[in-house]
Design a protein that fits this description.
about 300 residues; alpha+beta; PH-domain like; four-stranded antiparallel sheet; 8 helices; about 45% helix
Length: about 300
């Protein structure tokens, strides 16, 4: 059985052809959140403007946040009008006025990457010049993703074994957490210099906690995670997991929703016949490429 057939059979490929709109529930939630934020922060801005004594901090805070909410509402409105088309020739996305936002034939597909932890897929042609973005808010996103990965499997070539899983050296999340750790560390030092021992200790604890979150983005600090001919070894920051190929029962992509933002991040899950699960997140590389690599690896048994 080919990798493509493991993803979608011929009937499922045909059934995936069609027109896809944005999920109206997601749009309503986004618009409601933007309106609530606009009312809340707009009230803060009005109250700050009525103060007799001008204080630039609260005033700027109250002004910038409503502007951010207005921009967010405009962004949600623009996204809500997008339409995605799938057929046997390719994929293309149009805005609410019917203008093309991206178009790509399957024969031109060269690479599939994920953005924002796979909340959005990016399809590239072989030259890297053309790109089509597919948001997770489209209806039946799982079916759309399966079709895209099925088409990608036709041109994807796994790396030779043994293969080490590697992520980018500085994920964006790690950068923001590192900035936060430096900020709280600096505040802790300044508080200590001013003999504010209690505040300094609390701020130092915040800095340490954030630093531990940063270290979580670099599981390779304990050693490499490697795919061998007969087994896979995945090293986390505090543990190591190993699973033999002969014991693997299935390879799947699972989505976990962030309750704060509503966006999803994806992981590849290997299951053994005994029920053991091994999870591989984007900390170890590109989820689409890891998924297709492991599917091909298991199929070679």
């Amino acid at each position: 059985m080919t990798v493509r057939n493991q993803l979608l059979d011929d009937q499922a490929v045909a059934e995936s052809n069609g027109v896809y709109k944005f999920d109206p529930t997601t749009i309503k939630i986004g618009l409601a959140a933007g309106m609530v934020g606009l009312l809340l922060f707009g009230t803060v801005a009005i109250m700050a403007g009525q103060e007799k004594r001008f204080t630039p901090g609260p005033w700027m805070f109250g002004l910038l946040l409503p502007i951010g909410c207005i921009l967010f509402l405009g962004h949600v409105t623009r996204l809500s009008g997008r339409t995605l088309y799938l057929d046997d020739v390719g994929i293309f996305v149009k805005d609410k006025r019917g203008f093309d936002l991206g178009r790509l034939q399957w024969s031109e597909l060269g690479r599939v990457t994920e953005r924002r932890k796979m909340a959005q897929l990016a399809l590239w042609d072989r030259s890297g010049a053309q790109r089509v973005l597919v948001d997770q808010q489209f209806k039946n996103f799982n079916l759309i993703r399966a079709r895209i990965l099925a088409e990608y499997a036709g041109c994807f070539t796994p790396k030779p074994l043994s293969m080490e899983f590697r992520n980018s050296p500085l994920p964006s999340d790690a950068f923001f957490y590192s900035t936060g750790a430096l900020f709280f560390g600096w505040m802790s030092w300044k508080s200590y210099q001013q003999d504010q021992t209690g505040a300094s200790l609390v701020l130092f604890c915040f800095a340490v906690a954030i630093l531990l979150l940063v270290l979580r983005f670099y599981p390779q600090l304990r050693g490499p995670s490697v795919l061998f001919e007969d087994r896979i070894v995945v090293r986390h920051l505090l543990s190591t997991e190993e699973l033999y190929r002969k014991d693997i029962d299935s390879v799947q992509i699972e989505d976990i929703t962030n309750p704060k933002s509503g966006t999803k991040f994806s992981m590849v899950v290997l299951r053994s016949a005994s029920g053991k699960k091994l999870k591989i997140t984007s900390l170890y590389g590109s989820i689409p490429e890891i998924y297709l690599t492991l599917l091909a690896w298991v199929a070679e048994r």
